[in-house]
Amino acid sequence: MIIKKFIPLNKKILVELLESESKTDSGIYLPEDAKTESKIGKVAAVGDEKSSVKVGDLVMYSSFSTNKIEIDGKEHIVLEESELLGKVE
């Protein structure tokens, strides 16, 4: 099934996964299989208007989250608001 749009319900948050860096801070380029998944993403949709995050916020989330979906060719993850560790600025 191809998902075009996803609207989270209740206190669920839809987070777009960001690609991990291909280069370290010291300038070493990492091969594709050496990269780790980023634990920072961008909020794509919010289920509850009273949420502490809004669309576009950068957030850090727990690495134990497993509800991944693909929307328009981009990887996303669906989280409970309580699974967010915080905002990133």
Order of strands across the biggest sheet? Answer: 4-5-1-2-3-6
Radius of gyration: 14 Å
Helix % is under 10%
Euclidean distance between termini CA atoms:
35 Å
What is the percentage of strand-forming residues?
Answer: 35-45%
CATH topology: 10 Kd Chaperonin, Protein Cpn10, Chain O
Shape label = globular
The first-level CATH class is given as: Mainly Beta
Number of helices: 0
Highlighted features:
89 residues, mainly beta, 10 Kd Chaperonin, Protein Cpn10, Chain O, 6-stranded antiparallel sheet, globular
Description:
This protein has 89 residues and is mainly beta. The chain has a single domain (12-19, 33-88), classed as GroES chaperonin (10 Kd Chaperonin, Protein Cpn10, Chain O). It is 0% helix and 37% strand. The chain is built from no helices and six strands. The protein has strands at 12-17, 40-46, 58-61, 68-71, 74-80, 84-88. The chain has a six-stranded antiparallel beta sheet with strand order 4-5-1-2-3-6, with no helix packed on it. Strand 4 and strand 5 form a beta hairpin. The N and C termini lie far apart (35 Å). The model has no long low-confidence stretch (mean pLDDT 82).
Task: Chart the SSEs and their pairings.
Layout: E1 12-17, E2 40-46, E3 58-61, E4 68-71, E5 74-80, E6 84-88
Antiparallel strand pairs: 1-2, 1-5, 2-3, 3-6, 4-5
